[in-house]
Design goal:
This protein is of the alpha/beta class and about 375 residues long. It has 12 helices and 12 strands.
């Protein structure tokens, strides 16, 4: 045959996730930690990796790492499950709690992978958009939706802080949501180290609560792909039914164990990111025409005229930020990750140049 049968029908209209990673001098687009792992910790990593038998399969559940995380959270390992980044665990959520006749409640604008996973598992989606002026969750509508049995909502994801808009969800609302439904409520805490707020204190009281975390951001391991969930053992058992075997490789397990044992060493860099975030917010508020949105994370979303032109202006100067200017519910916005002080200075200077050029009626971005 010179052709292949059509792929599954639910793939029609879906587009692969595109992080829009382009070559740049300052990578301020992907919410990564601007600092790599400290050389002393890297030396420990090298030693740990050197001792791995590469011809053997890894521990399928990464139990050494589970034990470290469980102990730090006052739990047993049965409350912890590792994944190949948070992304694997997000897809496993849709596999285990989605499907035809079951409904995912989505709160856009938010991480687009949530909805994509629902579509891939043939799960109907109910969208309740965030409030347009603040991107806060429309709490009354959400509580009403989960209380209506006709919706058959089986899972929802509350991102806190929300990506890409920046605000954390109110804990009081999440608790109301947990009490209002038996649907699985995943709280995506990928950036909780920057918000300084977690739902961990409420985990034991709510079997329908799942907390998702990652090593990619605060712990500078975006290239290693390690994520985990905290959940009741009954929920973890369901996840184990759908997860891929050996999904977390031995090298990643070894690296993550070293980093987690040294997690306190990352705290100064986290505090520096929080400080720089506040500086970015203040500087953007002081720039004419720029509307930054409050952020509890390691980035700032901002709206401005000619945002698409501004993105090009920044990229031409070696600064890569994330362009959401044509995305639904995010029109006219860009998102800048908090970088080093020097990177943030370069970003602010280039952005001000663009704004000043526009104010002076310059020709940048105009058709000749």
């Amino acid at each position: 045959m010179n052709r292949v049968v059509a792929s599954a029908p639910q793939l029609a209209g879906l587009h692969p996730y595109d992080p829009k990673y382009l070559p740049a001098n300052a990578y301020l687009s992907a919410n990564e930690n601007p600092s790599d792992v400290d050389p002393d910790i890297r030396a420990q990593v090298d030693e740990a990796v050197h001792g791995i038998a590469l011809n053997r399969y890894p521990d399928p559940l990464a139990n050494d790492l589970r034990d470290l995380i469980a102990e730090a959270n006052g739990l047993d390992r049965d409350w912890v499950l590792m994944g190949n980044g948070g992304d694997e665990l997000l897809f496993d959520t849709a596999l285990a709690w989605g499907g035809p006749g079951r409904t995912f409640l989505n709160l856009p604008p938010t991480f687009s992978v949530y909805e994509a996973n629902a579509r891939l598992t043939n799960t109907p989606v109910i969208d309740i958009p965030r409030l347009p002026d603040t991107f806060a969750i429309d709490e009354p509508r959400v509580l009403q939706a989960v209380s209506d049995p006709a919706n058959n909502i089986t899972f929802t994801i509350v991102t806190s802080p929300n990506n890409p808009t920046g605000l954390r969800a109110r804990q009081e609302f999440i608790l109301q949501l947990l009490d209002a439904t038996d649907a699985l409520v995943m709280v995506d805490e990928a950036y909780f180290e920057f918000s300084r707020e977690t739902m961990r204190p409420y985990l034991e009281q709510h079997e329908n609560l799942v907390i998702l975390r990652t090593f990619s951001k605060a712990f500078s391991l975006a290239g290693v792909r390690i994520g985990y969930i905290l959940a009741h053992p009954s929920v973890i058992r369901e996840y184990c039914k759908v997860r891929q075997p050996y999904s977390v490789d031995a090298v990643s397990q070894a690296i993550a164990c070293v980093v987690f044992r040294n997690r306190n060493a990352f705290e100064p860099a986290i505090q520096q990111i929080i400080s720089e975030r506040e500086r970015l917010l203040a500087e953007l508020r002081a720039t004419p025409g720029i509307e930054p949105f409050p952020s509890d994370s390691n980035w700032v979303l901002f709206r401005m005229p000619d945002a698409d032109e501004a993105w090009r202006h920044l990229y031409d100067r070696g600064i890569l930020v994330r362009d959401f200017s044509s995305a639904a519910l995010l029109e006219g916005t860009l998102r800048v990750t908090v970088g080093t002080s020097e990177q943030n200075d370069a970003f602010l200077s280039a952005l001000r140049d663009f704004v000043l050029d526009k104010e002076r009626g310059g020709s940048y971005g105009r058709a000749e």
